[in-house]
Design brief:
Layout (H helix, E strand, L loop, with lengths): L19 E2 L9 E2 L1 H4 L2 H12 L9 E5 L3 H12 L2 E7 L7 E7 L5 E7 L8 E9 L3 H12 L3 E10 L3 H9 L2 E2 L7 H5 L3
Length: 191
């Protein structure tokens, strides 16, 4: 799809066609949404779709997960006129942090950190990431926010796959994603 083209009829999720398939092998995610972010209308519509279910909900802050969640999270924070908190991989913050180990979508063990001076008890945080595949990364983010006394106001991602972890997140938190129901099986099976 041409990065200048905007379809006349923009149905929900039209911008998913902007994503590129993996051409580099198994060490990479199966689909790359970063091309979507280069399309001005695609990015705007994606963020609007992610935020639509939270209209009227009390949200105090948006937190994005390192690194691709920073893009959507910062865009969502700007639209909501809220602050943005970066949840980082261990070793990138030079302030006091709280750490949480997790296993990412590829099965690698990692550690996520959150600065301890931004979330006060009761603060309502919208968590944003690019993708929820197995749920391990998002679950670590949830645990960090809740350990600091924050309240997870919701979870937003381009796709929340129908995995065990994805189902757990959907059962316990208000969620938003961009994949229309008719396409969800294709995304779950990486087609």
């Amino acid at each position: 799809m041409d990065l200048r083209h905007v379809p006349a009829a923009r149905e929900r999720g039209w911008y998913l066609a902007l994503m590129a398939p993996n051409v580099k092998g198994p060490n990479y995610a199966w689909l790359d949404p970063s091309r979507l972010y280069c399309h001005p209308q695609g990015l705007q519509d994606c963020v609007a779709d992610l935020l639509q279910p939270f209209q009227g909900d009390p949200i105090d802050m948006v937190a994005g997960i390192d690194a691709m969640g920073f893009i959507l999270g910062a865009a969502a924070a700007a639209v909501l006129q809220k602050g943005f908190l970066a949840l980082r991989k261990a070793g990138h913050l030079c302030v006091q942090t709280l750490a949480q180990p997790y296993t990412d979508y590829s099965g690698r063990q990692k550690v996520m950190e959150i600065r301890t001076d931004t979330i006060s008890p009761g603060l309502r945080v919208l968590l944003v990431d690019q993708w929820v595949e197995t749920g391990g990364t998002m679950r670590a983010a949830i645990e960090l926010v809740e350990r600091l006394g924050g309240v997870v106001a919701g979870v937003a991602a381009i796709c929340i796959e129908d995995s065990e972890g994805g189902r757990w997140i959907r059962e316990h938190y208000k969620c938003s994603h961009c994949v229309p129901p008719r396409l969800q099986p294709c995304f779950d099976h990486h087609q």
